[in-house]
Design a protein that fits this description.
Layout: H1 2-8, H2 15-23, H3 28-38, E1 41-42, H4 43-50, H5 55-67, E2 71-76, E3 82-87, H6 89-108
Antiparallel strand pairs: 1-3, 2-3
Helix pairs in contact: 3-6
Length: 109
């Protein structure tokens, strides 16, 4: 009976799989955590927070998070250009999950 259920089950159709697809990767959860902690952050501040990340990798992660509607990119029309990142409402709704991961980590490390 269980074997039959497992054969018909598709992990990719689960909410868990969808959530992982949004936050997977080495830096995305850290970027989201940083935005949760500091609310509005500029590109170079994120780079300093993450320490060992290239501009290209950070830029790619930010674009993916923006495309997934987890963060908001605000560009100000000035010279030099000023761009700020913050959590979207959708991203804020994910913070309960990330916060639970943090609590679990503190309790179990």
């Amino acid at each position: 009976m269980i074997k039959n259920y497992i054969e018909k089950a598709n992990f990719e159709d689960t909410g868990f799989s969808y959530t992982l697809s949004l936050i997977s990767g080495k830096h995305k959860m850290v970027i989201l955590y940083c935005l949760m902690e500091f609310e509005i952050v500029r590109f170079n501040e994120l780079k300093r927070y993450l320490k060992h990340i290239s501009d290209k990798t950070l830029s790619t992660n930010l674009k993916e998070l923006e495309c997934d509607r987890l963060i908001v990119r605000t560009e100000y029309p000035q010279i030099p250009p000023k761009v700020e990142y913050s959590l979207s409402d959708r991203g804020k709704s994910l913070m309960e999950v990330l916060d639970a991961l943090c609590v679990w980590g503190e309790e179990n490390r």
